[in-house]
Each structure stands twice: as C-alpha cells, then as structure tokens.
Amino acid sequence: MKWAAQLFVFSIYAALIRALEDPYKVLGIHKSATVPEIRKAYKQLAKEWHPDKNDDPTAEDKFVEITQAYDLLTDPERRKLYDTLGRVEESRPRRDPQYRRFDPFDEIFAGTGYRFHFTDRDITLFHKLSITSRAFENIIVPKSFRTPHLLLFYSDWCFACLQVEPIWRRIMEELEPIGVGIATVHSEHEKALARKVGIHSLPCLVLLSDGRASVYKESLFSVQKVVEFVRNKMPYKMVATINDDNVDVFLSGWSDNKVRALVFQRTESIRLRYLLTAFYHRDRVAFGFVGPGKSTEGVRSRYQVSPDQDSLLVFNEITERPVASVTMADIPMHTMHDVINNNNFLLLPRLSSQALLDALCPPGGVPQTRKRLCVVLVCQDTPNHDPHRQTLRRFASESHYAKDRVRFVYVYQERQPDFINALTSGKDSPIEPLLHVAILCRRDMSHVKYEWLSGQENWESYNNTKQRLESAIDRVLHTTQSLLNEAVIGELIDEHTQGIVSRIFTKLLLTAEYLNENIGKEHILPIVSILVTVLVIVLAGYFMSYLIKLKNCKKKGSLGSNSGSSGLTGCYTPQLKLHDMRAETYNGLVRLLRPGCRTILLLVDTQSKPHLLPKFHKVVWPYRKNKTLMFATLNLDRGVVWYREVLAQSLAEPRELKINPRNCIGTVLSLNGLRKYFCMYHAKHPECGAGRGSKRIKNMSKQIGIDPAGAFMGFDDTTSESEVSDVEQGSLQTKGDKYGDVIFMENLLDGLPNWLDRLFEGTTHRYYVNYWPDFPAK
Q1: Which residues partner with 486 through β-bridges?
Q2: Which residues contact residue 36 at a Cβ distance below 8 angstroms, ignoring those fewer than 6 apart?
Q3: Which residues pair with 437 in a beta bridge?
Q4: Where in the sequence is the signal peptide annotated (predicted)?
C-alpha cells in the first residue's frame, strides 16, 4: 500500500509538471507579455474556469493549471529560469525568506484542510513590519486620514498565520504600490491594541481608514477579496460618475474651492488605485469617473482621450482645456501625485480655512530676497462681485510671478470677519475694506505684515488695475522697503466643516455601520439573553408590587375614608384619609388612641368646608405615611357644643363661654387622647406669630385675666353693645374699625405648615383637660 500511495503522488506531480511545460500556452499569451497582460489573461481564464462557475468536469484541473502558470510567470526569477533552462523549479531550494516556491499540492489540498509544504514558512516578515501601540496612535492613525492602512494581527504560535504568509506577500505586492499602507501587529505583545480594535481570532486583517478600524470578516484570505474589502470601505460617493449630461455641471462647480479631476478608464468599474488617489487628495480635488460607453463618447471626443488607455485630466476654472493631463495603460501612483500636487489649487483660490492659508501663504522666516506674498481681494459671496474676482483671476493667469513667491487669493468678508478686522486696524487702512486689495507677508503663524493698495480700485479698467498691482508687488518684492503695517491674526474659520445636523447624521450612519460589522451571530444570543433577563426582572418587580397592593387591599379594605377612595370597593390606596368626627368615630379618633398617637382635627362648617378642606389636605399630605397620626374634620354645625366644653376645661378659671362658630373656622387641634391635652392653631393665635396684633392680644389677655386659649378667640362675654368682638383680630375694636385687620378665608391656613413643624418639635403650648367630653349624638 505504501508503494501504491507513493506511485499515486508521483503520478499527480508528474502530470502537473507536464501541464506546466508551457505556461504561456496555458494562459494564451506570447513570451514577451508584460505582467499586466499576464494578470489580465489570468483574470479572464480564472473567471471562465472557476469550479464554482463552470460545470465542466475538467474545470477544477484546468483552474489549477491556470493558477500555477500565473504563479510561475509572475515570479521574475522563476520565469527567467523557465525561459532559459526550461525548468519550472530551481534545482535546489532557495534560502531567501521572501521567495515563495511552487508547491503543487498546496493548492490541490487547500480546500480539504490538508496542506503539504515542501518548504518551511516562518513569520520573519511579520516581525519586520510589526508596529507598537504608540506607533499606531501617533503615526498610523494620523496617516489613515489620507492613506488607508492594512494591519495583520498575528502571534508567534499561530499556525494559521503561517498559512496566510504567502497570501500576505501577494497582498503587499498588489496594494502597497498603489497607495495602501501595510503593517503588522503582534497581538500577544500589544494586547490592549488588539482589544481596542476588536480582535477575536488570529490571523485577523484590519483596515484603518479615517481613524476607524474595520475588521475583515471573510473566512478565506485572497488578494481579490482583500481588494474588494478595501474598495468597499472607501467613502460613499467620493468619486462622481460623469457622462455627457453632467460633465459641464461638474467642471463648473469649483465654487467649493476645489480643483476638478477626471479619470478616464477602459473598464466599467473604477480601479482601486484611482479611488486611493481621490481619497488622498479629497480635501483639495474633486474627482469624477468617466467609464466606457455611448453616454461618455462626447466627453472623450471633447478632450481627445484615447479609448485604449487610462487618462487623468486636471481642471481649474478654465473648463475648455485641462491644466494638466497624463495618459498611460497603468498610470503609476507617483505620477498621479506629482500631477495633482503641482495643480491642486485654483487660479484664484479662496481663503476658506487655516490649512489653505498655511498652504497658500506659508509663514515666513525667509530672507528679504525670498519674500512670499499673498495678494488678497476682499469681497462678498454675491454674483455682483464676480466681475472683480474674474479680473483678479485673469491677472493671476497672466502673471509672470512664480507661484512660490506670489499667490493671488480672495476672501469672503462675511465668513472671515476676524481676519478682515485684524487687517483694518493699522495705519492707512480703508474704513470699508470691501473690494479693496491687501498685500500681506506672514512672519510666523500669527503675525503678518500687510499693506493696502491706496485708493479705490477701478475694476472696470483691467489695464489700470493690472498696472497698479504690478507696481505695488514689484516694489515690495524687489526693494528693501518693507510693508507698512503689522497685525496679529487668529485661526481662520473652516468654511467646509459639517453642520450640527450633518454631524449627527454622519454619527448615526457610522454607528449603524459599526453595529452591522461587529454584531454577528455569536453576539445575538447574549444580547437576547440580556434583554430577556431585564424584561423578567421588570415583570417580577411589577408582579411583587401588585401582590403588595393586593395584600394592602385585603388588610385595609374594611376601613372607610372620606377622601382617599380610588373607586375600587374594599381596596386600599396609599392616599391620605380624612375622617369625619361624629358620634360613631369619636372614640376611635380621641378616647381610644394608642400611646404616642394623635389626631389632627380641622374645624369647618358647611359653607367653608369646600374651601378649607383642599388646602388642609395639601398641607398634611407629606405626613400621610406617619402611622402615629390620624386626620379628621369637625363640622361646627353639629360639634360646637363639644368644642365649647373642651375650651372651657382649658381655662384657668371656669366660666361660661359664648362661641360664634364663624369665628372658629380654620382652627386646627392636635388631640392626644391618652394624655388628655390638645395643641391649637389659629391664624390669630399668639403663639403662631402670624397675627398682626399678637402683642395686643397678649396684653389684653393679661388685663382681662383669662388664658390665651380663650382670649384670642374672643370668648369674653363683657363686650358692650358699642363694641364688636373681632375674633380674628383678638382685640376689641370700634364699629368704625371692625374690618381693619380681617383675615380672609383662603388665608386662614397659611401658617399651618410652620405650626406643624413646631408641633412635631414639641415647642407648641399644650392645653390639658380633665376628661374628654361626650360627643353629641345629633
């Protein structure tokens, strides 16, 4: 059996070698084909013979042949070896760690989980590219706003990492030349960074773009899938699709202060290298993509673009012809960057941010012979000032000054008021700087020297304006004479920043995208479990509160209430109960009170009850949970006899009292049934301190020799007919002054909250009785 297995392996290996005797024939290309041509042929054949798309029984074998031929011809050394010696492999293994030797069984058994390796792979390459957390935060993250970075997280004892090592080399070869940053991270050494990014398994590929990390979710590593992954993470609609109908609108939209660039391509989908270029220059250049087809024939004919090659055209305000162009089969990245960097500003750009000011008018520190000037036109964002901007733009296009010496710009007065105000505070500055021109030179980041052109510009005469500008610029550039004024400028307002609504909408989109990427099937069950647990806890709490309420209903259902009913028969609700003192309830409210318990009693009559009861209820509401207190009302229409007897027992000397019930409404008694005393509140009671005649009340009480409990109520029966007893004043007044100190019904209980505080502090006066009189039955 052993020799049979060896014979089988040898026959397969020999068959593969024979199939690769002519890899050019397998791919259908000539021997002088370039690498792009080899790659193009491979992509076409791979799509045609892929086993998932082709039902032919020989499709799998054919696909293996195509892949092996492509691997051989894209390796320069192996291709040279085959062209010169006719061998597909070297006679001895190479020691170069970057060399990937052809392994016929590697691709055959890759899908089954068994891999045969004739060479040992290591992770030396990973160590060479490894970065630390500090480098990630200080270098990679800032760079990611212009250059996306692919990060591979690995560890030393990760066998799966060894398997992706050849694929990682291919990814580097494909993506690094077109503008994707490449780095690796040792997850064991940088555990905090791995947790921050969200690494759960190794190896793990992460794309860092705009400071945000996106994890590669595919289970299979391949160059094509990684390219699509990077493409899908580019900003939405970063490159506009251009055709014959919208090309003029796109090219003339430079009011956003950006140069326009058109990418002409032979294929339908824009290539990743152009997307990366647009991403790198998106702050200064707006990109448009022109694909093949009838809808773009007019654009191609207009600018005479070859349909067989890719082209890059850069435009400024002049849309009739590009300011720069390049046409090649594969435009190198450095060529595109050079073309754009040399033409990334309009002829007359606008100072719309601090970054533009630093780029167009960099700080000085240069010798006098290398002054760098900025010629600034102050205008407003209105079509009426377009002729003035056009005049200065024409002068800039015809100017013979080098761009690194003189820049022509304009600024909107209403959008950069602080900048304009700083330039108008000097000597000979115009009162109204609108449509005036200033020449400035920056000494450092905040200090500038400037000078305004004297007199109002005659913008209607181009020659006069040109002559005045040239003479002023030449005088400053070519003489030792310096600019007259100096000012301190602050940072310019960024006119391109998003509004609050746009930022909120962007945050919501990013949050939705993050949740979509990071919440998988393995996270759904824990989330559902947490939600169900919270729901069960809430329902359990609600059920327990219901049981407690039901228990209270059973316990308190037999008690009556005058003001605490909820409409449910026999059910107790945690509301304040106000009992009505009658013969039936008298013993429970007074005589049978437990030790330490008191009854707070409000005296009313039928007429005042609707007015006083709501306010009394509001005042005593905070004490509703005090189990030592009961609250009740006494209607004087039937209880005035009981009240008179209680007051009579509190007097020092027994006497007969005459009571006017109308003078007693609003009185509040605190009854202690066990110890036989009560405390009294009344709006004119001396101890309440609220009566305006309290001193007179006390003096009068001493003079007539009665206890204040009866004196302030006007219970003395010696009042003459010429005098009126004002019980709410507590003193005797003449008829002409009987309304001089009256308290209205709605104000009778104003001092009750303070009196209750003193009552519970024990500082109120106590009036003792010998016994509690009987309450009348009727």
Answers
A1: 449
A2: 329, 330
A3: 377
A4: 1-19
